[in-house]
Structure formats: structure tokens, C-alpha cells
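Milestone M4 deliverable, item 7.
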Amino acid sequence: MLDDALRLLLLLLLGLIAAWGALIVYTYRALTSPPRRTYASALARGRPGDPSQLPASPLTPGGQRAFEAWTFPSSAGPLHVWDMPGDDPTGPVVVMCHGWGDSRIGSLTRAPGLLPCCSRLVMWDMPGHGDSPGRCSLGLGETDHLLDLISHVADQRPLVLFGWSLGAGVAIAAAVRAPERIHAVIAESPYRLAHTPAHNVLTLMGIPHRPNLRPALWLVRWLSGKGANFDGFDRAALAKHLSCPLLVIHGEQDNVSPVADARDIAHAAPDATILCLPEAGHHGLWTDPATLETCGNAVRKLLARVRATPASPVSS
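Output delivered:
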């Protein structure tokens, strides 16, 4: 009888371990392979699916917006880019970095507020998003890819990084690593630590997180070749080392990225402005008429400041 009880207990224990392992793998896949936002998904929501569908430029009234589509190599495979001229040839170049589960299509809702003040707008799909292959590494490897993209952009004009959510942290990290190249950062809905939005997104998706999130994040880090922890990830700690202006935009009702994180990041940066929107959440800052104009004015003010600053020489 005792042997039978021990055998049953062992089977139950093995079953629990197997279920725990399966939940960890499921969580890892949910975090690193988010739903892809593509041309079809944009059209289904009645929104532009590529830059040609944006409002016409005053430089070419009545015509479609011109843009180029190209790729650049990465360890994940070819990453997809849209590259379009802005309406101000004397303005800065803006590189846009989307959030988790978004794509360069998310840049199109923000583009009308930027195009009048920039000379060039570059939008890309991070690994595991949009049309780009690979898996999302939650901001661990994306900074390297962004720096590679910047080298392919190869433009002598001042360069501004504009990222939201995941992309906000990637932009901050890239600006710290390439201070001679980046002239300003716009961080919309940023967060400090990787586990914060992961926890909140899993909760919103109805996926358990207590027994599985930390092991899943360890798996993300390990499979990304970055070791076993997230040392050096804290975006507020990185913001202390920024040598360029930082604009932080955040909704106070954000249920993914806490507004306290945005304030910590802004307070840590040597030269930062923060815009908190009382009624706004994590999404819709550029589609809600109540916040659209406020966000656009703040961004254009920063771009005008960069435009007035002479560009630093860039080695070829």
C-alpha cells in the first residue's frame, strides 16, 4: 500500500512538473511571438496600410506619398523598413520604433504629426513583428538591430528616435550607446523593467503569471544569448546617461506601462520633458482627438529644437 501511495505521489509530482514546464514554454511563446500587425489588419480597422495611404504632401499636392521599402540584414533575418521623405528638407531624420505586438504600421498613425517637421521618416519592423522574421526578445536584442538600422540610414542630418512602449526603451538604450549620432529621443509609454509590461499583458490575456513568468523571462534572456538575467535593462538607470533631450509622453490610465515608470525615467534624464495625459491609457494617444493635438504639439516642439541645433559630424 505504501509503495502504491509513493508511486501515485511521484506520478502526481511528475505531472505537476510537466504542466509547469508546458506553461513556461507557452508563456515564452506568447511573449516572443505576439500577434502580427500587417497590411490586412490595418485595412480591417480602416487605417492606412502603408505610407502611400497617408494624406498627400504639400510638396506634391494631390499625389500619393512616395516611399521606399527595403530590408537590412540581422541575426533574425532581413528586417523590413519603410523610408519616406518628410515635408521639411531642413528638419531632422526620425526613426520610429514600435511597441510589442505592433509594427511599422503603428508609425502611420503618428506620421501626420511628424512629417511637416522632419526631412525623412524611417519605420521598421522589429524581429517577430509585422513582416520581419524571428522572435521578439523584449528589448534585449532589439537595441543592436536599431543601431544597425541607423548605420544603414547613413544620413548626415540630426537624427531623432521615436519609440513607444517596447520601442521607447529600445530608443533610450540606443541613444545611450550612440550619443554622437542621436540628437533627441521621444519615449511614448515607456517602462523601466521587462517584467512589468510582461506581467500586465499576461494578466490582460488571462494567462497565469505567478509560477511561470520569471522562468519564461529567464528563457528569453538565455535564448537571446544575453545570460540569465536582465541586469542593465532598467530604462531609468540608462536615462541617466542620455546626452540628448528626452521627451516622455504617457497616459496616466496606462494599464501596461505604469505612469510612475515614465516619471522615474524623465526625472533620471539630464534634459527631459514629460507630458502626462490624465485620461489616456496605453493605446490611442494618436487616434483619440482628445490627445492627438497635445501629443503632436509636444513632438513638433522637440523637433523644432533639434532643427535649431547644428548637426554633429558623422564619420562615414
